């Protein structure tokens, strides 16, 4: 299976141009690393159908033949998973679907596993859109998610680009645990995400690229992360005069 996390580190080789430019993409930095085309090939054109072909055309044909022989993925004869896309749904539509994705028990939603497909910048003044895929009841639900109780720099604010990039690097193509708290008026599921048993908010707070929203009582780990950034006057706290709170 293709390791999508590795796609952040690729080598691109331009092979020919015909209206658009065509080439091959390799995982890693060397040409002897895995050819993405061979890993994800589905259908290929016969040589007589096109004037120019990739230098790796024959290798792709060999891999496709193997996939057909072994009945992999689209060649398996099994219907593809049903994906229900709620990523642009209304609050009402999301509310109706919520109980099919999350289970309410003992006054809170149970934790579920998900996969982060992408992180998208929005025009909102308060949040970015995290696209999650969650498998429940033999269906795959595609939802819009946003982190609850923290605020990152937005728009033209200082460090907005850096905060978004750290959020993207922390989450994209990662498997996460999803803790739902509520649904907002824009149809976003709101809550917390854990990656490798760590709340993804913590790296942002530690780096001085997010701050806790006023109001609720937070886990001490969140407060320590923010206070560390305040004490070191990192990023958004560089001109801050708030006192450091010691939780030891």
Automatic annotation (TrEMBL):
InterPro entries (UniProt xref): SNase_OB-fold_sf, Staphylococal_nuclease_OB-fold
Location of the TNase-like domain: 128-239
SMART domains the record matches: SNc (SM00318)
Protein name in UniProt: TNase-like domain-containing protein
Lineage: Eukaryota, Viridiplantae, Streptophyta, Embryophyta, Tracheophyta
């Amino acid at each position: 299976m293709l390791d999508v996390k590795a796609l952040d580190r690729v080598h691109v080789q331009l092979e020919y141009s015909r209206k658009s430019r065509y080439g091959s993409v390799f995982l890693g930095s060397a040409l002897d690393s895995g050819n993405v085309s061979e890993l994800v090939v589905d259908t290929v054109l016969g040589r007589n159908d096109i004037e120019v072909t990739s230098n790796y055309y024959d290798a792709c044909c060999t891999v496709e033949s193997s996939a057909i022989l072994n009945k992999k993925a689209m060649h398996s004869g099994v219907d593809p998973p049903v994906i229900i896309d709620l990523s642009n749904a209304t609050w009402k539509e999301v509310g109706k679907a919520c109980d099919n994705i999350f289970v309410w028990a003992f006054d809170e939603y149970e934790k579920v596993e998900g996969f982060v497909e992408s992180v998208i910048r929005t025009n909102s003044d308060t949040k970015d859109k995290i696209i999650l895929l969650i498998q429940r009841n033999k269906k795959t639900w595609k939802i819009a998610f946003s982190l609850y109780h923290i605020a990152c720099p937005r728009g033209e604010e200082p460090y907005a680009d850096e905060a978004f990039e750290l959020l993207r690097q922390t989450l994209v193509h990662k498997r996460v645990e999803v803790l739902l708290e509520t649904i907002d008026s824009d149809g976003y599921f709101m809550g917390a995400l854990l990656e490798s048993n760590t709340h993804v908010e913590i790296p942002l707070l530690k780096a001085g690229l997010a701050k806790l929203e006023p109001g609720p009582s937070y886990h001490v780990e969140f407060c320590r992360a923010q206070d560390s950034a305040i004490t070191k006057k990192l990023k958004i706290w560089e001109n801050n005069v708030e006192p450091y709170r010691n939780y030891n």
